[in-house]
Amino acid sequence: MTIPNYRDQIKIVFFDIDETLIVKDKDYLPASVLPAIRGLKANGIIPAIATGRTPFSFPPKIKALVAEAEMDMFVTMNGQYVRYQDQVLAQHPIAPAKIQRVVDFLAAHNIDYAFVSDECICVSAVNDKVRSAMDPLRTDYHIDKDYFTKHDVFQILPFYDQSQDELIARSGILDGLKVVRWHENSVDLFDQQGSKARGIESAIRHFGLTMDNVMAFGDGLNDVEMLSTVGVGVAMGNAHEQLKALATHVTDHIEQDGIYNFLKKAGLLD
Known about the structure:
The model has no long low-confidence stretch (mean pLDDT 96). The two termini are 21 Å apart. The longest helix is centred in the middle third of the chain and has 13 residues, at 96-108. By secondary structure, this protein is of the alpha/beta class. It is built from nine helices and 14 strands. The strands form three sheets. It has an eight-stranded mixed β-sheet. A four-stranded mixed β-sheet has the order 8-7-6-9, with helices on one face.
């Protein structure tokens, strides 16, 4: 497929983190990523993050990339928390009453869970299923079942596999919430209207841009709305097949410099 020159159109590029910028299980950040980010900035294009993660759980190599490349626009927690420099542009915490309904049901069915805020991750318990999902992200979470009564919570992470999907779907606890599976043992629960796309809308409004001016890279099912909404949606070569089917373009695998190669071909890098 021919890749047009997008230099005049694109003013900001959003990057997912896991399996887009970094290979999570290998802790591998391609050497071509930093030159790509710097090249965008040199050409007056804003590089930004759009992730399901909370800022608290960015991998060390991503934190180093952000610092070295001086990135300062972040759409986090699947669009529930948007920050530019030190300014919060949008935030969409889950209502405590909704959280209470969810955790009461989960506890009754012996399903553990985590609360995600902008500064902390708390779990209801620590066991093998929780560790399998959480430890690749971060290991300094702690137990606090009542965290939501004192702090804003932007996502709930119930720990269950696909065999319990139907139980959750029939439970009624998803009213007003969206569920997206991100791990074999866990899903994200967040505001039903929430998505990375909504977060990006808040971000670009700050700059007076439109979605047509946005390019985004992603690999997972929580990138569906983002890649469907931005002007140019790019799926990684290692992306979920459903995401590849709706993307504007599919680039190379993350470990084959997919980001750098596409940006170069699209005219965004010199």
